[in-house]
Amino acid sequence: MQNKSIFRYSFLLEQLVKRNFNTKYRQSVLGVLWSFLNPLMTMAVQYLVFSALFRQDISHFPVYLLTGIILFSFFNECATLGMDSIVLNGPLITKVAMPKIIYPLSRCISSLISLGISLVPLLGAMLLSGTPLTPALLLMPVAAVMTFCFALGMALILCTLNVFFRDTRFLWSVMSLLWTYATPIFYPISIIPEAWQPIFRLNPMFQLIDFMRTIVIGGQWPAWGQWGACLLAAFLPLALGLLIFRRQEDKFVFHL
Amino acid sequence: MSDAIVEVRHVTMDFRLDRNHTTNLKEYVINLLSGKRRVETFHALDDVSFSVPRGSVMGLIGPNGAGKSTILKVISGIYRPTRGEALVRGRLVPMLELGSGFDADLIGRENILLNGAILGYSKDFLLPRVEDIIAYSELQDFIDMPLKTYSSGMLARLAFSIASVVEPDVLIVDEILSVGDERFQRKSRSRMLEMMQSTGTTVLFVSHNLEQLRQMCDRVIWLDHGRVRAIGDAQTICDAYQHESEATS
Fold it and tell me: Which domain holds residue A133?
């Protein structure tokens, strides 16, 4: 009998993650340094553009920006690359039997490693801007894993849709832009009219970034309400993604 | 039937043929609204049953579209059959269209690991054999270069070397391969025969070459329009098939 559990494929998962990582920076002079530089440079640009507008409202503005940028681009990378992973590996999926979830999963794990690396410049920015380092920072991996779960859930939904309708990628590029602006990354939630705020709070990425900021900038253990919102934001989409993916994965091979 | 390593039981495989070829949302919605979703069902396999004894070489013949590749994909686990089941009691390795799992940006050595993992080899199995694979492929001088610098012959040699290092329980071969230059072709063909003739490995293979089938197979399955037309020893089935092909042509 062929054992289809993911453990038999842990070596493949490892190889795919390595492949993603090795090809990402191949032929670039600075290589993995870009994982530090990218968020820092994005932060610098947004700081220049928005500091006049929002600096007074937000304490530790560079750290506030950087937290939002790092977490959101992690999510965006997982969703976008995960979405394409099944279609791009189509030639393989039609020839070798393996759990197909391995493709979006390996993409998201690669991005999680990049996220881990980009936490280093975040710590650097905290030290430079005099944000106190507190024990609450130990919760950072928890925030990262919850965001990972949400991002994987989205990747599973998007890659399934993308197999059946190749329009998905075009729709998503617009959607993700809208999502970026609808998430308080470079502005405070307080600029949103009071009546609209509950809707903005339904955004899982808002909850997850808010959780991270509570840890990083506030130096506090997040309130139970925040915990609840983030756990829901992480695991509900993941469960939905798994359900949709599992239901449809046997049909993928006919559409690749 | 405990000595059967592959058992195919009443396998039916229906393909839904979407006459409109919808791969975009607009067409899908339009077709849905106008009630024009023409979907036809095509029986690629219709109640196919057979079993393959351990260590035997089983050939598949039949005209194009008879379902030969489809049954191999069902056995490999790529297609889930509409009805029935295919049981495989052991490790199955598909002899791929060579190099499907390569990444052009990675170097040869990295591709050995990647491709091996795709074929389902474990880390413990593969790592000690990397040097053997490199030696067999005769690509020592190029193994640390990115694959995009390889010629197609070199790619084929590397792919064959990775695929043939294993001694699988079941080997799936869709048409016999000819890779590399003439010398490497001879080398790969004899390795192939060696794998086929070793008692441990069961081979399922598709070919249109009747001579090859007569030589190599113990038994042959004749598929026609998704049904098993006949199963028997290679000589008998090949003769019958040849007779009919000549009669109709």
Answer: 15-252
Structural domains of chain B, ranges and CATH numbers in brackets = 4-91+205-248 (3.40.50.300)
Question: Residues with Cβ < 8 Å from A10, sequence gap 6 or more?
Answer: none
Nearest CA in chain A to B7: A1
Helix (H) or strand (E) holding B13: strand B4-18
Chain B residues touching A164 at Cβ < 8 A: 23
- B3-30 pLDDT per residue, tens: 788 999 999 999 877 666 666 777 777 7
Give the count of domains, chain A.
1
Residue A237, domain member (yes or no): yes
Q: How far is CA A249 from the centre of its chain?
A: 23
B119 touches chain A (CB under 8 A): yes
Res A6 pLDDT > 70: no
The structure's pTM equals 0.87
Task: Render pLDDT for B133-186 as a digit per residue (tens, 0 to 9).
Answer: 999 999 999 999 999 999 888 888 888 888 888 778 888 877 656 666 788 878
Report yes or no: A57 at the B interface, CB cutoff 8 Å: no
In a domain, A3, yes or no: no
Under an 8 A CB cutoff, do A96 and B15 touch? no
Interface of B with A in 33-52 (CB under 8 A): none
Distance from the Cα of A99 to chain B's closest Cα (Å) equals 10
